[in-house]
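Weekly modeling sync, notes
Attendees: AB, CL, MP (scribe)

Item 1: holo prediction request
CL wants a bound-state model with zinc ion before deciding which constructs to order. AB pointed out that an apo prediction alone won't tell us much about the pocket. Agreed to run with the ligand included and paste results into these notes for async review.

Input as submitted:
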Amino acid sequence: MISVLNQYSRYQRGLSMEDLFPKREDNTCACGCGNLLYGRKRKWYSQTCMHNSLTQFQIIKGDTSVIREELFKLDGGFCRSCGVYDEKWQADHILSVSEGGAACSLDNFQTLCSCCHKEKTKALNRIPNSSDVFASGLNLSKFPLSPFGTNYNTFSKHVKRRTVIIA
Ligand SMILES: [Zn+2]
Ligand SMILES: [Zn+2]
Protein backbone atom coordinates (compact mmCIF):
# COMPACT_ATOMS: atom_id res chain seq x y z
CA MET A 1 0.00 0.00 0.00
CA ILE A 2 1.23 3.46 -0.92
CA SER A 3 2.11 5.58 2.09
CA VAL A 4 0.37 8.75 0.87
CA LEU A 5 -3.02 7.04 1.08
CA ASN A 6 -5.28 7.73 4.04
CA GLN A 7 -7.55 4.72 4.59
CA TYR A 8 -9.79 6.78 6.86
CA SER A 9 -10.50 9.65 4.49
CA ARG A 10 -13.17 9.63 1.79
CA TYR A 11 -11.12 11.88 -0.47
CA GLN A 12 -7.37 11.58 -1.06
CA ARG A 13 -6.29 15.20 -1.22
CA GLY A 14 -3.07 15.74 -3.13
CA LEU A 15 -2.87 12.22 -4.54
CA SER A 16 -1.43 12.29 -8.06
CA MET A 17 -1.32 9.82 -10.94
CA GLU A 18 2.44 9.73 -10.46
CA ASP A 19 1.98 8.48 -6.86
CA LEU A 20 -0.08 5.50 -8.00
CA PHE A 21 1.50 4.84 -11.38
CA PRO A 22 5.09 6.07 -11.47
CA LYS A 23 7.15 5.62 -14.61
CA ARG A 24 8.88 2.25 -14.33
CA GLU A 25 12.64 1.87 -14.43
CA ASP A 26 12.47 -1.39 -16.40
CA ASN A 27 10.79 0.36 -19.36
CA THR A 28 7.52 -1.51 -18.98
CA CYS A 29 4.09 0.09 -18.95
CA ALA A 30 3.26 2.10 -15.80
CA CYS A 31 -0.11 0.34 -15.43
CA GLY A 32 1.63 -2.88 -14.43
CA CYS A 33 0.54 -4.96 -17.43
CA GLY A 34 4.18 -5.87 -18.04
CA ASN A 35 4.25 -4.86 -21.69
CA LEU A 36 7.55 -3.39 -22.85
CA LEU A 37 7.42 0.20 -24.09
CA TYR A 38 8.68 0.71 -27.60
CA GLY A 39 9.06 3.49 -30.14
CA ARG A 40 7.76 6.82 -28.81
CA LYS A 41 5.98 5.27 -25.83
CA ARG A 42 7.32 6.80 -22.62
CA LYS A 43 4.98 5.61 -19.91
CA TRP A 44 1.92 3.77 -21.22
CA TYR A 45 1.82 0.79 -23.53
CA SER A 46 -1.63 1.63 -24.89
CA GLN A 47 -4.52 4.09 -24.62
CA THR A 48 -6.43 1.38 -22.74
CA CYS A 49 -3.62 1.08 -20.17
CA MET A 50 -3.69 4.84 -19.62
CA HIS A 51 -7.47 5.01 -19.49
CA ASN A 52 -7.83 2.11 -17.02
CA SER A 53 -5.11 3.52 -14.79
CA LEU A 54 -6.79 6.92 -14.79
CA THR A 55 -10.12 5.35 -13.80
CA GLN A 56 -8.39 3.37 -11.03
CA PHE A 57 -6.71 6.56 -9.83
CA GLN A 58 -10.01 8.48 -9.75
CA ILE A 59 -11.71 5.68 -7.78
CA ILE A 60 -8.90 5.52 -5.21
CA LYS A 61 -8.83 9.32 -4.95
CA GLY A 62 -12.54 9.24 -4.10
CA ASP A 63 -14.15 10.76 -7.20
CA THR A 64 -17.81 9.97 -6.53
CA SER A 65 -19.03 10.34 -10.11
CA VAL A 66 -16.41 7.91 -11.45
CA ILE A 67 -17.11 5.45 -8.61
CA ARG A 68 -20.84 5.55 -9.37
CA GLU A 69 -20.28 5.21 -13.10
CA GLU A 70 -18.03 2.15 -12.69
CA LEU A 71 -20.23 0.56 -10.02
CA PHE A 72 -23.25 0.98 -12.25
CA LYS A 73 -21.44 -0.95 -15.00
CA LEU A 74 -21.10 -3.83 -12.49
CA ASP A 75 -24.43 -3.82 -10.66
CA GLY A 76 -26.79 -1.84 -12.92
CA GLY A 77 -28.43 -0.19 -9.89
CA PHE A 78 -29.47 -3.50 -8.28
CA CYS A 79 -28.97 -3.78 -4.52
CA ARG A 80 -26.41 -6.47 -3.63
CA SER A 81 -28.14 -7.12 -0.33
CA CYS A 82 -31.81 -7.55 -1.29
CA GLY A 83 -31.57 -7.69 -5.08
CA VAL A 84 -34.04 -4.89 -5.69
CA TYR A 85 -33.45 -2.20 -8.32
CA ASP A 86 -33.47 1.32 -6.93
CA GLU A 87 -33.01 4.39 -9.09
CA LYS A 88 -31.72 6.14 -5.97
CA TRP A 89 -29.08 3.43 -5.34
CA GLN A 90 -26.11 4.17 -3.12
CA ALA A 91 -22.43 3.42 -3.67
CA ASP A 92 -21.56 1.78 -0.36
CA HIS A 93 -18.11 1.12 1.11
CA ILE A 94 -18.24 -2.60 2.05
CA LEU A 95 -15.62 -1.99 4.73
CA SER A 96 -16.73 1.43 5.96
CA VAL A 97 -14.54 4.54 5.80
CA SER A 98 -14.52 4.77 9.61
CA GLU A 99 -12.99 1.30 9.67
CA GLY A 100 -10.31 2.09 7.13
CA GLY A 101 -12.13 1.23 3.92
CA ALA A 102 -11.31 4.44 2.06
CA ALA A 103 -8.71 4.90 -0.70
CA CYS A 104 -9.90 1.59 -2.09
CA SER A 105 -10.49 0.14 -5.52
CA LEU A 106 -13.93 -0.86 -6.78
CA ASP A 107 -13.57 -4.18 -4.86
CA ASN A 108 -14.63 -2.40 -1.69
CA PHE A 109 -17.77 -0.88 -3.23
CA GLN A 110 -21.23 -2.34 -3.58
CA THR A 111 -24.60 -1.10 -4.75
CA LEU A 112 -27.21 -0.85 -2.01
CA CYS A 113 -30.80 0.32 -2.37
CA SER A 114 -31.61 3.34 -0.21
CA CYS A 115 -33.43 1.08 2.29
CA CYS A 116 -30.55 -1.35 2.84
CA HIS A 117 -28.06 1.52 2.91
CA LYS A 118 -30.05 3.29 5.62
CA GLU A 119 -30.17 0.10 7.68
CA LYS A 120 -26.47 -0.51 7.31
CA THR A 121 -25.65 3.06 8.34
CA LYS A 122 -27.96 2.73 11.35
CA ALA A 123 -26.36 -0.57 12.36
CA LEU A 124 -22.88 0.90 12.03
CA ASN A 125 -23.79 3.90 14.15
CA ARG A 126 -25.35 1.71 16.81
CA ILE A 127 -22.46 -0.72 17.11
CA PRO A 128 -19.12 0.99 16.46
CA ASN A 129 -16.42 -0.95 14.61
CA SER A 130 -18.69 -3.66 13.39
CA SER A 131 -19.26 -3.82 9.65
CA ASP A 132 -20.33 -7.46 9.89
CA VAL A 133 -23.55 -6.63 11.72
CA PHE A 134 -25.08 -6.08 8.32
CA ALA A 135 -23.43 -9.12 6.76
CA SER A 136 -24.69 -11.31 9.60
CA GLY A 137 -28.24 -10.73 8.36
CA LEU A 138 -29.49 -9.07 11.51
CA ASN A 139 -32.92 -7.73 10.59
CA LEU A 140 -33.13 -4.11 11.59
CA SER A 141 -36.14 -3.25 9.44
CA LYS A 142 -38.83 -4.18 11.95
CA PHE A 143 -40.10 -0.71 12.64
CA PRO A 144 -43.77 0.20 13.15
CA LEU A 145 -45.47 1.59 10.05
CA SER A 146 -46.17 4.91 11.71
CA PRO A 147 -43.47 6.04 14.09
CA PHE A 148 -46.06 8.13 15.95
CA GLY A 149 -48.59 5.37 16.47
CA THR A 150 -52.11 6.41 17.46
CA ASN A 151 -50.96 9.79 18.69
CA TYR A 152 -50.19 10.91 15.16
CA ASN A 153 -52.75 13.74 15.18
CA THR A 154 -51.52 15.06 18.48
CA PHE A 155 -48.01 14.90 17.16
CA SER A 156 -48.75 16.76 13.94
CA LYS A 157 -50.59 19.49 15.86
CA HIS A 158 -47.60 19.77 18.11
CA VAL A 159 -45.30 20.05 15.10
CA LYS A 160 -47.48 22.76 13.55
CA ARG A 161 -47.41 24.75 16.75
CA ARG A 162 -43.66 24.40 17.02
CA THR A 163 -43.25 25.51 13.40
CA VAL A 164 -45.20 28.68 14.10
CA ILE A 165 -43.08 29.45 17.12
CA ILE A 166 -39.85 28.88 15.22
CA ALA A 167 -41.04 31.00 12.27
ZN1 LIG B 1 -0.24 -1.31 -19.45
ZN1 LIG C 1 -31.59 -3.49 -0.73
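Recorded for review: The chain has one domain: 17-166.
Action items: CL to compare against the apo run; MP to circulate these notes.
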